[in-house]
Each structure stands twice: as structure tokens, then as C-alpha cells.
User: Fold this.
Amino acid sequence: MPQNFPEVWLGRVRTQLTTQDVAPWLDGIEELDTAVIEMGSGSAGESNIIHVPISTFAPDVLINNTTYPLAAQAYADGTVDIHLDKYQTKPTTLSDDQVIGASYPKIDAATRSHVVAINSKKYQKAIHAIAPAADGAGTPVIPTTGEVIGTRKRFTFVDLVSMKDAFDKMEVPEIGRRLVLSTDHWNDLLVDESNKAYNKLLVDFRTGQPAPNIGGFDIYSYVATPYFTTDGAKVAFAAVPGATDSRASVAYFVGNLVKKTGFTKQYFAPAYLDPENQTNRLNYRHYFIALPVMNKYIGAIYSAASA
Assistant:
């Protein structure tokens, strides 16, 4: 086996983590330009942390003022520490017979499952973090209002307009609004006979082309949007959904989201340390986070109960 086998694998995984299985609804989200601080490297408590400056300062605006001198306002800001989520794959065992030569096809075949698994989890966690926990000021959570399908009400374009109205009332900037539809809600729109013109926009959507814009939202679809209860409460990440819980659609303003990719690490035990089995073991650790900067300009549309 080549001596650079571990290094070749690690380099390949880093490349695939940033080029494959990308969630298009995260494209254009600002990657924070701040250094990642690694704490407790190699220990059980190892973490990746970033320091993010936060400012909500807005100066008062005077109209037709005649009083001088003007009262001064002190600029105020602060910072928050954000711990990136840690994603680890369980070790994979590979015999020397499988990897001698370390050719790229063998590397890709063996690592692809790790790449897909990590990306799947980190994107699920991202869309869950973006969705609001419940309805509130700045975080509209809206029930569907369409006809009854089984135990839920269908998602309609009326519900999309309701979210537009909520964003309008919050004075969310019009450029940068996105709506990530659950597959249930996407399919609801596709079969909505009352809006055939909009249906064609959705049917003609192809990966790699700009997302269709309907009602001021760039429209996307994702198979793993977060679950919500029929009362409009977000189900905890990785929790087992209840019988009546269903995946919700998530709305947000791009300018209120940030993401950060941390370190990727490889753990590798070569076969020569395992003479009985002559088997290599490897797995990966990857740090990433995506979340709203402020708890506003985000929303969700959940499937209301049929009763």
C-alpha cells in the first residue's frame, strides 16, 4: 500500500464535501469571514468555535429638526460565540486486498458513503435550525388551508401568499426571500388544477437553473425539511415524529442567514497495525453550521390537521 494512502483519502474527502450533494437553497448564503478556533484538539471535548460580531444599532432620524446641538447616540455592538456542529462517521473497515494501489475509483467508492452521510445530516440540521420554533413576532408559522387529504389540509398558493403577506408586514427586503417546500407541499402545488400557470413553472424547474420565483419567493424543494406538529410547533431535531406530525415548508430571508465550514479530520488506522486481519479502519469528523443571525425574517408553513 502506498505510504501516502491516508493523505490521499483525506484530500479527496475534503474536495467532495464541498462539491457534491450541495443543497441549492443554501447557495448564496454568506460564509462567515472569520477564523475557526479549535478548542481541545484531540480530546473528547474538541470543538470548533467562531466569534461573530453582532450589531443591531440604528441611529434615530430627525425630520425638520430645529434644535441644536444634536443629541449624540453611542454606537453599540457585541459578539457571540457560535459552536459549529460536529459530524462524525462510524469507522469503516477495509482490507488491504480492497485498497492496495489506492486508485481513485477505489477511494471514491469507499468514501462516497461517508460524504453523502455527512452532507445529508448537516443539511438536515441546517434547514431545521433555520425554521422557527413556533409562531411569534418576526417568525410567522402558518397552517395550510387547502382541501383535506387524509389527515391533513393541502398546501395551496393561497398559503404561499399568506407567507408573503407576513413577510411584507415585517418589511423583509423583497430581494432574497426564499421558500423551501417540503415534498408534500411541492406535490400539492403540482396537482393544484386551479393554478396551472404556476404548475408549469414548477414542472419546468431543473437542477442548475435559477429557482422559479413565485409570489416574491425563490422556490426550492427539499426532502428533509423539519417536522411540525398539527399545532404549529417544531419537532426537535432527530426526534421521532408523531403519527400526525408532517414536514413543513421553510421561508427565510437570505441576508439573515450565515454559514461556516470548519475543519475536516480523518482518522486512519493502517492494516500493518492489525496483522491478524490486515484491515484498515477509517472515519471522518467534519464541522459545519448554518443558522439565522436573528430570530426574525424566518417562517414556516405546516400541514394543518383535517379536523
